[in-house]
Amino acid sequence: MQNSKSTIVGVIYLAASILLFFFWISGMFHACKKHSTIDGVASIVIPPWGIYRGIESFSHENTNAEEVAVDAPASPSK
């Protein structure tokens, strides 16, 4: 009985660790791509910030201003 409990706890611990690591790595890329460079560096150096950005990346919505800034052609100078 004790062996099966420790196995279950070990599997849960491993799954949680892998999930947090995934959120940290995805948070690094998301912070660098969708936020500022300083935010990207902070997510690399401070793992909880990277994990937060990883979780936030799933609910991140681009505002219309961000889409226009990326997709709009450059206006000719007068």
Topology:
Layout: H1 2-34, H2 37-45, H3 47-56, H4 64-71
Helix pairs in contact: 1-2, 1-3, 2-3
Number of strands: 0
List SSEs in N-to-C order.
HHHH
Structural class by sheet pairing and helices: mainly alpha
The whole-angstrom Rg is 19 Å
* Measured distance between first and last alpha carbons: 80 Å
Low-confidence stretches: none
Quote the beta fraction: under 5%
Count of runs of 4 or more consecutive helical residues: 4
Major sheet details:
none
Q: Summarize model confidence as the mean pLDDT.
A: 83
Basic shape:
elongated
Assign a percent range to the helix content: over 70%
Describe this protein with a few key phrases.
78 residues, mainly alpha
Task: Tell me what the structure shows.
It is elongated, with a radius of gyration of 19 Å. By secondary structure, the chain is an all-alpha fold.
Could you give a short description of this structure?
The chain has 78 residues and is an all-alpha fold. Helices cover 77% and strands 0% of the residues. It has helices spanning 2-34, 37-45, 47-56, 64-71.
